[in-house]
Design a protein that fits this description.
heterodimer; A: Aminopeptidase; B: alpha/beta; Rossmann fold; six-stranded mixed β-sheet; four-stranded parallel β-sheet; about 45% helix; globular; disordered N terminus
């Protein structure tokens, strides 16, 4: 694996798993990926009133995705269906590489968003997406993989715990 | 008090079947009925009571019925808990449990206000099924508390009937209790209504020459009854890709905006969204009904919910069930005019009343007589099939899809079918032949009718104060 500076996604080749096909995102994917990100944020909204989704969330999601596509420290993957769902976008992963200023390992791969349409869940696809993402982040130098999700999302907590993740920092909030 | 409400005509007039003439007369009639019910409730002060079923010749007999003799009976049960069903009334006693969170069309009125309905249900259980039912409205603040409370009550009962618990918590409560209790647990708003619907649907398909494997079916409303109806239809062979559920957000499909929210708040509805994926359709009710064979509506009491145009857009000779109470989603005459071959409603004043009271007395009689340990969907389907079969007794037609409530023989037949199915599934603690189950059920039911008649004749049950010339039927 190479670590190109210019084009962050050249190190990812299309990868196939039963039922899906994973590939790096392109500019043309942005609108549909934005709707998936908003779906995820709406799900998050269920867990805490401080996660209320903004009215312009979809527009912002498009901007964020566009900026990710030109950011060497960002990773955006598209999950497409196979068979009858061929070329249909069914999921998205968004991750960033961050430097850990005070801690070792020094590089952290943060999984910011991972979303899969309900019909494609529970077939090991989520797990496959996670593993591929962490391999890619690892290949780019990440020594630790982290994942962000709402504290109350017990399903996500169980999903990650089952795969060896544990909580290391907590984000506590209050409205002011 | 006696003349507070005045007599009500013995037979309700057929309501004016027109979407725009929404029934002032009906409302007045309902109000009069309500006033009379209040007056009678005040007169009788309760609808059921406990009566001894053993002789008491002298007080000395209490040494057998109570201490000291009774201790030996206790010890027998302590040694072998199963004999509780033989040595006490547990075999024929059930609890009617509610938290009062969705009572009739009244909504969340709380456990105390729910009591009159539960007493009425207990009366129906006794009169139609010979079942001793104890009304138990409970004060709880969470679904878990309902489960915990029923778990603690269970040792006294041979079965549990959950009643008037709001959706979706009713799904959790039923599922959890069915998993954890060694006796049958039933929720009538889910299972009873679904069984009656399926029975009527089976006969509708027969009348119109359809097969469950081929029909395109639309469910309007995705509450307690329709979610279970969907599950039963799928078990009967309904193609999930031809099953479209519609609620107030439109067609329920796997990519609907709220589907993630459903995965957290109502996993039963979520599951249906994934299983059917809208029957391959997106959009609203109109889109769902295009070319559909069957509409099963259990949604909003508004006669304009389903338009004649929608019925016209269905397949030729469609089946239309408009089950909302008290007002169907489309008036039967309007549906027929628009081409419906078969129409059913939830009301007794139209042909084809889909009524859970046709189901639960027989189901409980059957599962109690079989001492069943549970009541799985196969048993529910056995009840539905038997009910459908009984409609043939008076001749199956498009306006006689189900037995009516006065075709009393349907009840022991349903009981026998249920008990036999329980035995076949290996969940009956007490196995008999179908004929034996039938005779027992019939005996239990006619005994109650005789009992009620005799209590009235002897004056222990007073005649209705507002009907002085009361004649026992």
């Amino acid at each position: 694996m190479t670590h190109p500076k210019e084009s962050p996604h050249e190190d990812t080749h299309p990868i196939n798993a039963p039922g899906i096909h994973l590939r790096p995102a392109q500019a043309g994917d942005v609108p549909v990926l934005a709707t998936l990100l908003v779906r995820l944020k709406r799900l998050n909204e269920e867990f805490d009133p401080l996660l209320k989704v903004r009215a312009d969330a979809e527009e912002r999601a498009r901007e964020v995705l566009k900026s990710d596509l030109s950011n060497p420290d960002a990773l955006v993957l598209v999950a497409e269906g196979t068979g009858a769902d061929r070329d249909k976008v069914v999921g998205v992963v968004r991750a960033h590489l961050r430097e850990r200023v005070f801690y070792a390992p020094e590089k952290e791969g943060v999984i910011l968003d991972i979303y899969l349409l309900p019909l494609h869940r529970r077939r090991g696809v989520g797990e496959f997406m996670l593993k591929e993402t962490w391999e890619l982040l690892k290949a780019r130098g990440a020594g630790v993989i982290t994942a962000e999700f709402p504290t109350q999302n017990e399903i996500a907590a169980r999903f990650y715990a089952k795969r060896g993740f544990r909580p290391i920092t907590a984000l506590h909030a209050r409205q002011v | 008090m006696a003349d507070a409400a005045g007599p009500v005509p013995p037979k309700r007039e057929t309501p004016r079947e027109h979407p725009h003439s929404a029934t002032e007369g009906e409302e007045g009639q309902t109000r009069a009925l309500g006033e009379r019910a209040v007056a009678l409730a005040g007169f009788y002060q309760g609808k059921i009571e406990t009566i001894p079923k053993v002789p008491v010749r002298s007080l000395a007999d209490f040494s057998l019925w109570y201490t000291p003799g009774i201790a030996a009976v206790c010890r027998r049960i302590e040694k072998d808990p199963a004999v509780a069903f033989d040595l006490t009334g547990r075999w024929n006693t059930i609890a009617i449990v509610t938290d009062g969170s969705r009572v009739l069309g009244l909504g969340n009125i709380g456990p105390q206000a729910a009591m009159p309905v539960m007493e009425g249900k207990a009366l129906l259980f006794k009169f139609l099924g010979g079942v001793d039912a104890v009304p138990i409205p409970i004060q709880v603040s969470s679904p878990e508390e309902i489960v915990e409370t029923v778990m603690r009550l269970a040792p006294a009962f041979g079965g549990i009937n959950l009643e008037d618990i709001a959706s979706p918590k009713c799904f959790y409560v039923l599922e959890e209790l069915q998993k954890r209790l060694p006796i049958p647990v039933w929720h009538d708003d889910q299972l009873g209504t679904a069984a009656a619907t399926v029975a009527a649907l089976l006969n509708s398909m027969e009348v119109t020459g359809r097969s469950i494997h081929e029909v395109r079916t639309v469910l309007l409303g995705a509450g307690a009854a329709n979610l279970v109806t969907a599950r039963l239809l799928l078990k009967l062979g309904q193609d999930p890709h031809k099953l479209t559920a519609v609620d107030h957000h439109g067609i329920l499909h796997a990519e609907r905006e709220d589907v993630d929210e459903l995965s957290l708040r109502n996993r039963w509805k979520f599951r249906l969204a994934l299983d059917t994926d809208g029957g391959g359709r997106k959009g609203d009710l109109k889109d769902a009904l295009l070319g559909a064979d069957v509409l099963l509506a259990a949604s909003t009491p508004d006669p304009n919910t389903v338009s004649p145009e929608m019925v016209r857009s269905m397949a030729p000779k469609p089946i239309v069930f408009a089950l909302a109470n008290p007002v169907p989603e489309i008036w039967p005459s309007v549906a027929h005019e628009a081409g419906a071959a078969v129409v059913a409603t939830g009301r007794s004043d139209f042909p084809n009343q889909v009524n859970n009271s046709l189901v639960f007395p027989g189901v409980f009689r059957g599962i109690l007589d079989a001492r069943a340990t549970s009541v799985p969907d196969e048993v529910v389907l056995a009840a539905a099939r038997e009910l459908a079969a009984r409609a043939h007794d008076r001749g199956l037609t498009a306006s006689h899809l189900l037995p009516t409530m006065d075709e009393m023989d349907a009840f022991p037949h349903v009981a026998a079918a249920v008990a036999t199915e329980a035995a076949r599934l290996g969940i009956a603690r007490r196995r008999r032949t179908r004929d034996e189950y039938y005779e027992e059920a019939k005996q239990m039911m006619s005994r109650t009718h005789a009992l009620v008649r005799e209590l009235g004749r002897a004056g222990f049950v007073a005649p209705m104060p507002d009907e002085p010339r009361s004649e026992t039927k």
